[in-house]
Design a protein that fits this description.
Rossmann fold; five-stranded parallel β-sheet; 14 strands; 19% strand; disordered N terminus
Length: 375
Amino acid sequence: MIPLRAAPAAARPGASPAGGQKIRVMICDDSAVIRFAIGSLLGAEKDIEVVARVAHGRAALDALKQHAVDVVVLDIEMPVMDGLTALPLLLEACPGLSVIMASTLTERGAEISMRALRLGAADYVPKPSAMAVAGDQRFGAELIAKVHGLARLRRTRHAPAAAAAGAGDGGQFPLRAAARQAPLLLAIGSSTGGPNALFALVQSLPPTLGVPIVLTQHMPPAFTTILAQHIDKLGILPCAEARDGDALVPGRILLAPGNRHLLVRRSGGSMVARLSDAPPENFCRPAVDPMLRSACEATGGRMLVAMLTGMGQDGLLGSRQVVEAGGTLVAQDEATSVVWGMPGAVARAGLAHAVLPLPQLGAKIASLIAGGKRG
């Protein structure tokens, strides 16, 4: 099968890379109810235009010949051509297209979504049942945030000079000196846009990183299990979903399981993971704040925090506690974040030692850990 070739965006009516134009979205789902519900959610946004609603991947490829599209919301299970088959064809037909996989809340849906991210999908969104989509406010907020963020990133790629301006210097935000003592732990927080950011970050870290890593990504249970497996398959640092009582081992990542907070506790001379069913914080469980608070207590503040892309400000209070106790924090910059909520909150609060593009974060983290150990 020969993939369809879409005309360059600038040559098609309504092309959107230029600023100020509406974000053009295609919805591809075999359920007419889902197409209508998602279309209504997105269409209610003043800066979003739903330009096509189609029932399968083949129709989506045909629609690309007729419409300029910034973002596709792509179902996985469809007749004629399913989402995973359509994904690489859509990306080849329209280079730079952002595809959000819409997945059911099942282990199979999670596995396919994570595989799609590795194949070039920009993000995913867990999809409630057809009857629940219209009334699910969290689903609507997450989808709208991802459409906005991915469209902004797509347009930034068309204007690299603007994106690079001030990158890495924190912009107008005050930066803090790094801690002088060696960190005993690396803690990572992420949410919206997090899986792809995590894949990139882990791939940029050295396999000899000499501290344990704990990670909280806002995700439902089935998805955290599969995310841990896919991070582990990168072959850089071993990763597993945390179990209660797991020892924290240098160079190993423990991921907070869905619907449980991941805490760090002292046990003798070592640190262990503890799982908590305490109420959600910042509307999230797992949440970043309880992980950071507990890790700060367990390490006496001798820790490094990396705050990645995410909606909201989960992690702000915990980060403040870490920094005030003598720890160090680095944050992903706005230009490379899908949503600059969580990293933006700590940057604006003046808690960051560095605010960097995602490709530079791994080297900075490795340098801070190695430099601290030498000091």
